[in-house]
Amino acid sequence: MKRISILGCTGSIGTQALQVVDFLRDHLEVVGLAARSNVDLLEQQIERFNPRMVALSDEASADLLRTRLKSKDVKVFGGRDGVVQVATMPEADMVLSSIVGIAGLIPTLEAIKAGRNVALANKESLVTAGSIVMKAAIEAGVCILPVDGEHSAIFQCLSADEKQNVNKLILTASGGPFRGKSIDELSDVSPMQALNHPNWTMGRRITVDCATLMNKGFEVIEARWLFDMDISKIDVIIHPESIIHSMVELIDGSILAQLSTADMRLQIQLALTYPERRRSSVPYLKLSQVGSLTFQEPDMEQFPCLRYAYEAGRTGGTMPAAVNAADEVAVEAFLNRKIGFLDIPGIIKQTMEAHQPVLNPALEDIMSSDRWARDFAEKVILDT
Is residue 224, in this structure, part of any structural domain at all? Predict the structure, then answer.
């Protein structure tokens, strides 16, 4: 029995993780849950999974939950410190980190420092502070297991060969809902259209990031840290069918690929049960019904966010944190119809041009750059 704490339990990844736990109740147990403010859904999860400790980062929501749970034997904490309590609780063998945004960085770091293995779905932890997070994991002797489909695929392929035989990593991308669209066609894209991803059901920000290809750029930076690979050896290829989740090219020209049904529960389950594999509730992939698998180069002129992410990754230091913050602000403004879809990359570019990166940052440098970039992007939006 593996005991798990889930950070971000009411979000897309968190709710799917609980479906996995429900299916594997003889092997997985939830001991801690943390969310932002969704009291109703968290209360339902508590009723079904009986965790020992829960937290809501919104203090008012935590107070409301305490009132509702007076008769239940569960500890309720509030604020960021409360989330850290769940992330570091001694009863947990593993922490699933799926809080959205840089808010997940501190709890993830604290879980690592407490000696917990981490199933990582919070990409901002590595995008903004990859060097710090990976150093902490090495010092604590813990494993970071990727939950993102692309990184999980590479993780599985790399287990079949030694790293010195790797020529490059190849991340696949669906291309999002606007693959093949002209710039003119993108000029009046609505939030509803951007949120209509052809293959995956995800949170609002990550879905828009998939539409701009910024999410794929962030995955390149993640892969750089997860697999200790220079960014020059990480490629992106558009694969609309989302059947091959990523590939590893070896020095002799062989390519290893991981294929499966497009369902995040597979990657979540592998991260939670590793090193074991167990049957899942996800239907098997039927190759005879797949049909064609197609590939094409990404258009970085049409979708410049991918190019900006590569540039940020090559610059390093606090630049990825600034790009992440600017993107988050710009996407939120787009979803609130304050700016257009094509304004998103422009805001990111202006933020990059204005940012003076710290190249060997401490954690406070990263947090400071995040705050600066948010303020800068907000000002750009006001002038847009």
Answer: yes
Q: Residue 274: inside a domain, yes or no?
A: no
Cβ atoms 271, 292 nearer than 8 A:
no
- Chain centroid to Cα 328, Å, comes to 13
- The residue range of the domain holding 380 is 316-384
Q: Is residue 280 situated within a structural domain?
A: no
Predicted TM-score (pTM) of the model is 0.94
The residue among 32, 87, 31, 83 whose CA lies nearest residue 59 is 83
Q: Which residue in 128, 220, 213 sits closest to 171, CA to CA?
A: 220
pLDDT, tens only, 327-383: 999 999 999 999 999 999 999 999 999 999 999 999 999 999 999 999 999 999 998
Residues 325 and 308 in one domain: no
| Sheet strands side by side (includes 244-250) | 234-238, 166-173, 244-250, 255-259
Closest-CA residue to 9 (of 48, 50, 29, 38): 38
Instruction: Please indicate, yes or no, whether residues 117 and 257 belong to a single structural domain of this protein.
Output: no
How many folded domains does the chain comprise? 3
